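Sample intake sheet
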Amino acid sequence: MNHGGWRYVAASVVGTSHVKMGGTCQDANDCQVYQLPSGEKVLVATVADGAGSAACGGEGAIRACSVLVGLVNDHLSSGNTVEQITAESAKFWISVIQSALGKEAESVSRDRRDFACTLLVCCPGNTFT
């Protein structure tokens, strides 16, 4: 995709060990380009991988990416900058994501650990106008 100076490609494929065991893809990604009030554009890219031991790790990865992109969007839409993302805001976001995964788990009578995943975000501070 190409959005105002930013280009990205995202894909997820089933890993070889999952293929051998008849499993599904547990990877997820979400990429968005946001326009700040100043007119600058910021890329937000997330990737996640469901924990292999988690029964619903793939679903957790999808939900975690979605929630994190939404949190960054809220941060930027409030007039904040990428540079204003702090360790404290990241800790808060982690708790929000954990809560969202907990609610998802409750809705299907599972434990939150069943939705365990790793999660990464890239939100470059240099922007394009």
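Comment: The two ends are 17 Å apart (CA to CA). The chain has three helices and five strands.
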